[in-house]
Amino acid sequence: TQSTWGDQTSIFFVTMEFVKDVYASTQPSLSNSTLVLPSLSVGSVGQLAIDLLICTLRLNRVGFLKTPFILPVAGNNAFTTDLSTPHPTLSTAVEVFHADGITAIQIRAPLISGHALPFVKALLEWVRTVGFKDLVVLSSSADYKRTDDLLSGPPLRYLSVQSALSDRAAGLGLKALEPDQTYEGAFKETSMLRKGGFTRQLYHECAASNTSMFAFNIFCSEGAGLAEAHTMARVFAQVVLDRSDITEWISPASWNLLFVESASENLYF
Fold first, then answer.
1. Residue 103 near residue 60, CB atoms below 8 Å
2. Assign residue 92 a region: left if phi > 0, alpha if psi is -120 to 50, beta otherwise?
3. How far apart are CA 137 and CA 202, in angstroms?
4. Angle, CA of 260, 261 and 262, to the nearest 5°
5. Is the pLDDT at 243 greater than 80, yes or no?
């Protein structure tokens, strides 16, 4: 990554460090598992969908990712079932969960402005080091980018770089992300991803480095994003896990605080 400060130009590369959770009951190998993570995008759909996957698939927290590109944050355990009392473990900015061949990253803080590309580069280096089987991103983008011919049908699309999941997605009736026909700049294939977080940078970095990746993207507006998150989780289960039997998605107790006038102090202390 090249950074210019005044008249001086420096070249640096910062790696992403995985730190094991010392309180985890087991420390499974993440190698050859499917990695799924959210892009920090419209309506927080990806992050909410990750919450549903963690709770419903009973993923266990196995560690944390240390990165200088995401703002630090800490708070009460987001998955505790009792929000009235403090929990002995904290939730942090970037956490890693795992069970039964699925590794999920939950991101609870924003990327530092202007650092999406170095974050993506560090992420892909870690992905290659661990040896994940698949890289899947849950993303959302501004629905005002949908043109008249795109308004009919489901708002969910996929985009892929050399991923076998694209065949299964197409077989289930999902549509690939269409390019914006009015866009005349570079990277036209992702021009529809307005407010789509780091998905564009990740897609093009994977394409440039011949790294397999697959992304779900749903068009939506700013807001709670709960309905879109349920749609995203359900389609992820169908495409990636080959499961259509999940009829009830479990949400964390922390979702109960989404629409309250004042949150309990125990959320923070």
1. no
2. beta
3. 9
4. 95
5. yes
